[in-house]
Amino acid sequence: MLRGLWKLTWIELKIFLREPLGAIGTIVIPVLVFILVGRAIGPKLGPTANAANTFIGVGLPVLASILIAISAVLSLVTIISIYREGGILKRLRATPLRPHTILTAHVIVKLLLTAATLSLMVLAGKRYYPVGIHVRFVGFTIALLISTCSILSIGFLIASIVPTARFAQPIGAIIMYPMIAVSGLFAPIASLPPLLHAAAVIVPLTYAVSLLAGIWRGDPWSAHLGDVAALALVFFVCTALSAKVFRWE
Amino acid sequence: MHPVIQVSGVRKTYGSNVAVDEVSFEVNDGEIFGLIGPNGAGKTTTMECIEGLRTPDRGAISVLGLDPFRDVYKLQNRIGVQLQQAQLQKRIKVWEAIDLWALLYGKQATDGERLLEQLGLADKRNAWFMTLSGGQKQRLFIALALINDPEVVFLDELTTGLDPQARRAIWDLVRGIRERGKTVFLTTHLMEEAERLCDRVAIIEHGRIIDIDRPQSLVNRHCPDRSVVLASDDPHAAERFRAIPQAETVTCSGTQITIRGRGDDLVTEVIQCISENRIRVTDFRTILPNLEDVFLKLTGHSIRD
Ligand SMILES: Nc1ncnc2c1ncn2[C@@H]1O[C@H](COP(=O)(O)OP(=O)(O)OP(=O)(O)O)[C@@H](O)[C@H]1O
Ligand SMILES: [Mg+2]
Question: What is the topology classification, in CATH, of domain B224-288?
Answer without folding.
Answer: Alpha-Beta Plaits (3.30.70)
